[in-house]
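Re: that backbone. Tokens:
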């Protein structure tokens, strides 16, 4: 059965440019598998006559927009948001590893997975590329909940067989056996996807990284998900551990871990040869600005990425990141875009920030045309935004003279209160 939603409508064209209808209509219908997809979208005046049979829900004063895509987040770190530390390495040792060791317990994994998905959806995030922990139970808990909620979600068991304390360190051979078993169990089941997930090069042996690379070649449509060049102490450590590699990033390339659908968080301390390698291998960056500011890691070079031309999108990196809200992440990206800015103008345009957290992030994940947009064919994951959610938002969005001003008012002032409802593409029986 066709359904239609009438409200303002935000979409993006094939180049990532915004399309906006003040009086829009989004028409969704089940595909062959019963999955709700966008059938038609545009101005109400143009689209409505084509679908006289659709049942219309009218949301006056609201904006329909694609569900947000978070390119890098750690579900087991939900409880350690806002943990104070000197920097990345002490933060891992004092907060992260103790918190993650609890995910050996399936009941704890399940409990946190529910909190995590509730929080994502309250914030309008409908897909995330997600770290679990080294415990297979954490992956099962995540996928079971995501499957029940019919979400498009990606995660994987963390690989870390050295330089990690008891409780999170895994065994080289067993970790690869577990990874392959989890791929076979979950990858491409409903809307779930598996990511081969070495924590970062310093916590994996050569043998584990080599095994991960072999799995990445054998299961070519899985994701690869890790961290690189986040913090100067971490970069120095990686260089000491892998002296033969030209750079920290090159370590991953040497083990076959750079390819399409490989995503590395941070990528801050890069040179142009690293950026060229990202581009040549079609590897993407998950830019995590609240995390980078919080941990004092540094500033992602947006101009450098654009100059070389490789894929990136935005990410919260909770719990190093400080908020589940895409609005907080977009605003932090705007601040970071100021650092080292050489071109005149306003840092990053509001519509580009928004695209980098929806359609652009989907493209960087290899999911363009599937999620992150509301063009025909996309899965119908979307948010209903109330631009009058707070008195100041109502005032400020009411004063907006154009789309950029409207989007920027929401980016600067917005939080989860803007997200009135998150609609997930359901697979309907029959
Ligand atoms: Zn991270």
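Recovered sequence:
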């Amino acid at each position: 059965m066709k359904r239609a939603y009438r409200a303002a409508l935000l979409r993006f064209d094939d180049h990532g440019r915004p399309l906006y209808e003040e009086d829009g209509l989004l028409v969704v219908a089940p595909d062959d598998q019963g999955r709700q997809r966008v059938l038609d979208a545009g101005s109400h005046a143009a689209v409505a006559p084509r679908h006289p049979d659709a049942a219309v829900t009218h949301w006056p004063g609201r904006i329909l927009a694609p569900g947000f895509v978070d390119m890098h987040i750690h579900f087991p770190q939900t409880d350690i948001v806002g943990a104070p530390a000197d920097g990345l390495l002490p933060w891992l040792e004092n907060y992260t590893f103790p918190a993650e060791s609890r995910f050996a317990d399936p009941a704890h994994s399940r409990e946190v997975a529910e909190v995590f998905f509730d929080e994502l959806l309250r914030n309008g995030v409908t897909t995330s590329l997600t770290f679990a922990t080294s415990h297979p139970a954490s992956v099962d808990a995540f996928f079971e909940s995501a499957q029940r909620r019919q979400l498009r979600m990606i995660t994987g068991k963390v690989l870390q067989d050295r330089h990690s304390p008891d409780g999170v360190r895994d065994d080289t051979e067993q970790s690869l056996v577990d990874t392959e078993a989890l791929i076979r169990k979950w990858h491409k089941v409903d809307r779930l996807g598996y990511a081969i997930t070495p924590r970062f090069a310093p916590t994996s042996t050569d043998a584990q990284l080599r095994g991960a690379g072999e799995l990445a070649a054998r299961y070519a449509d899985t994701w690869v998900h890790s961290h690189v060049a986040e913090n100067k102490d971490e970069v120095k450590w990686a260089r000491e551990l892998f002296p033969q590699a030209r750079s920290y990033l090159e370590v991953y390339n040497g083990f076959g871990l750079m390819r399409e659908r490989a995503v590395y968080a941070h990528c801050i301390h890069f040179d142009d040869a690293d950026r060229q390698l990202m581009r040549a291998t079609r590897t993407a960056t998950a830019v995590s600005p609240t995390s980078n500011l919080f941990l004092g890691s540094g500033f992602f070079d947006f101009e450098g990425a654009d100059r070389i031309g490789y894929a990136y999108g935005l990410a919260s990196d909770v719990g190093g990141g400080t908020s589940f809200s895409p609005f907080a992440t977009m605003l932090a990206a705007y601040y970071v875009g100021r650092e080292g800015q050489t071109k005149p103008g306003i840092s990053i345009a509001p519509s580009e920030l928004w695209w980098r957290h929806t359609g652009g992030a989907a493209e960087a994940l290899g999911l363009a045309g599937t999620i992150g947009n509301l063009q025909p064919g996309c899965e119908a994951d979307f948010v209903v935004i109330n631009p009058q959610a707070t008195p100041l938002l109502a005032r400020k969005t009411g004063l907006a003279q154009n789309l950029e001003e409207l989007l920027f008012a929401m980016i600067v002032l917005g939080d989860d209160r803007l997200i009135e409802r998150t609609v997930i593409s359901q697979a309907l029986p029959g």
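The chain has a mean pLDDT of 96. Residues 106-122 form the longest helix (17 residues).
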